[in-house]
Design goal:
heterodimer; A: alpha/beta; 10-stranded mixed beta sheet; two-stranded antiparallel sheet; 10 helices; 33% helix; B: 289 residues; alpha/beta; Glutaconate Coenzyme A-transferase; 8-stranded mixed beta sheet; 34% helix
């Protein structure tokens, strides 16, 4: 559902950015490419490459797929100090660890900064992009009060600051317009044009208003008319399951701990078995290198 | 044809206690792991590690007690979750984290290349990044009075970069995932390359990929086949998720991690010992591309 929602936001011709370990977003961009946005370009963090192709998501061979299909290579420094600040990237969907009612986000720590309860990986480029780009989306695979919080433990991504219409962002000279929407496993939210507070747009089929309210740590604005989110069509589901993500890698974003590890182990076994049937020149070259190496160094 | 080709145990002597060590590669891709294991064996202390996006590289150094400060915008194991030693040592205050974003590192390196003390950017205003980085300041543009953020230059003492092909003089190729390695090689005082293959300069020129790092930037070259394991080295092998699961399991406690280091680092004097310890041919075949 989140994947289809993100895909629908991509416009034909967009340059869409994908961050570290966000397979759901990669799947969404490719779904957009296969449906209404065939000319969109994807900027991958893996390799800092721009690509226009659609290829299946992979855990073991993602780097190889991205590099092999690359349209234009870049470097990390080039992307972050040229491409990102200049605003070349049109759109990106980020996954916050915490988000507040004005769409400010945190990917740094849970708890006190000096002695955190949980130290998270870091903000990557979220703080750099959120003040510059015009089309920022969020996705939250597990909608709960630990993610949707009244007060952030650290502000590493900019939303609408303390609300107040857009005056504050403009006064600071921020170039971007602020976040547009947030997609969770329960519903779709946007930001009220006046107060810039997070407002419910639609509930996913089967989700009640009470459920989303109880799982949100701040008061969500409720519109007069709540729509039901349009579920993915059969065509979208088929494209995802057959062409884009046959192993269900995007679902890993909704799992954690042992369940996720178990799923990863199953997927990599499948990927490796499927791989052994392929015989490319690279595979043959690397096998020869391996055997030569084993003779020379490993004594095997 | 010797040039700058040295043994691993000599190359680590270019790293001193207290240095800012820049590590090439990106998360689980092309990390100079054989070099990092040698650093752990040597027992470095009080290092500041700079890694654009870090994973097992920085995590292993932290777990071995070599690190006092981290400069990185991401330390994690991608979809495998959080980096265990990093998490534990930052949460209990044993390691200081110099909070970075992609921009603060990228622009910091550019400033160092220009030999200016800072470079201005439009981002980071109103984020808490400014509260935890007293060395990043808001200032007024001298030309337009616009509010800008001044990011300090970053100049590492020593950089270590894993490449796929290098000649003995320090010219090197690697393809696809370039990361920030070209800038790190230019800006760092000392530069060490570890290479999958040592080739002649002629062979290097015939490589379809251009030379990414040039000999004048490099101080030492070390032959290290499979030297990025358990991270990847495109186009030869992908990362070893099977081994990384064992690493994560061991990282859950300090004692278990000591056991990991004993088994895979201290008891493996050579790269050959290590490659046999991780499962020899079968393990290498599994990750071969």
């Amino acid at each position: 559902m989140m994947c289809a929602c993100i895909a629908r936001e991509i416009k034909d011709g967009d340059l869409a950015g994908q961050g570290i370990s966000t397979p759901l977003v990669g799947a969404a961009y490719m779904l957009a490419k296969l449906t209404h946005a065939p000319h969109s370009v994807i900027s991958y963090t893996v390799g800092n490459l721009l690509s226009i192709d659609v290829f299946p998501l992979s855990l073991l061979y993602y780097e190889e797929s991205v590099i092999d299909q690359c349209l234009r290579p870049w470097t990390f420094t080039g992307v972050v100090s040229d491409l990102v600040p200049f605003g070349c990237i049109d759109v990106e969907a980020f996954r916050p660890a915490q988000i507040d009612k004005y769409g400010n986000t945190n990917n740094i720590v849970i708890g006190d900064y000096q002695r955190p309860k949980v130290r998270l990986p870091g903000c990557g480029g979220i703080c750099d992009a959120t003040s510059i780009w015009d089309r920022i989306y969020f996705y939250i695979p597990d909608h709960n009060r630990q993610v949707f919080v009244e007060k952030l433990d650290f502000r590493s991504g900019l939303g609408f600051l303390e609300g107040q219409n857009d005056k504050q962002r403009k006064a600071l000279g921020l170039l971007g317009k602020g976040p547009l929407k947030a997609f969770s496993n329960l519903g779709v939210m946007n930001f009220d044009e006046e107060t810039r507070r997070m407002r419910l747009v639609s509930l996913h089929p089967g989700v009640t208003l009470n459920e989303i309210r109880e799982n949100t740590g701040f008061e969500l604005m409720i519109p007069d008319k709540i729509e039901e989110t349009r579920p993915p069509s059969q065509e979208e589901i088929d494209l995802l399951n057959e062409k884009i993500d046959p192993y269900g890698i995007r679902m890993l974003e909704s799992l954690s701990g042992q369940k996720r590890n178990q799923r990863i182990k199953e997927i990599i076994e499948k990927e490796m078995n499927a791989r052994q049937k392929i015989n490319t020149p690279r595979h043959a070259h690397n096998q020869a290198r391996l055997i030569d190496f084993a003779k020379r160094f490993l004594g095997q | 044809m010797t040039g700058k080709l040295v043994a691993m145990e000599d190359a680590v002597n270019l790293v001193n206690d207290g240095d800012m060590l820049a590590i090439g590669g990106y998360t689980l891709y092309r990390k100079p792991m054989a070099f990092i294991r040698e650093l752990v064996r040597k027992g470095c202390k009080d290092m500041t590690v700079l890694s654009f996006a870090a994973s097992v590289d920085v995590d292993m150094l932290i777990g071995s007690g070599a690190v006092s400060a981290i400069r990185s915008c991401y330390v994690g194991m991608e979809y495998l979750g959080l980096a265990p030693n990093h998490r534990r040592h930052v949460e209990n205050g044993a390691v200081r984290l110099i909070e970075e974003s992609e921009l603060t590192i990228g622009v910091g390196l550019k400033a160092a290349l220009q030999r200016v003390p800072f470079m201005p950017v439009k981002q980071l205003l109103e984020t808490d990044m400014l509260k935890v980085r007293s060395d990043i300041r808001i200032t007024a543009c001298p030309l337009t009075s616009q509010k800008v953020v001044a990011l300090p230059a970053i100049k590492p003492d020593v950089a270590v970069i894993h490449v796929t092909e290098a000649d003995p003089f320090g010219n090197a190729c690697f393809s696809g995932n370039i990361c920030a390695d070209r800038e790190l090689a230019m800006v760092s005082d000392r530069v060490i390359l570890t290479a999958e293959n040592i080739v002649s300069t002629e062979q290097l020129k015939q490589n379809p990929q251009p030379v990414q790092i040039c000999n004048f930037e490099v101080d030492a070259v070390v032959e290290a086949p499979w030297g990025a394991h358990p991270t990847s080295a495109y186009p030869y092998y992908t990362f070893d998720l099977w081994h990384l699961f064992d690493y994560l399991e061991a990282g859950r406690s300090g004692d278990a991690f000591k056991g990991y280091l004993e088994r895979y680092v201290h008891q493996c004097d050579t790269n050959k010992d290590y490659l046999n310890a991780i499962g020899g041919m079968a393990a290498l075949e599994r990750i071969s591309l």
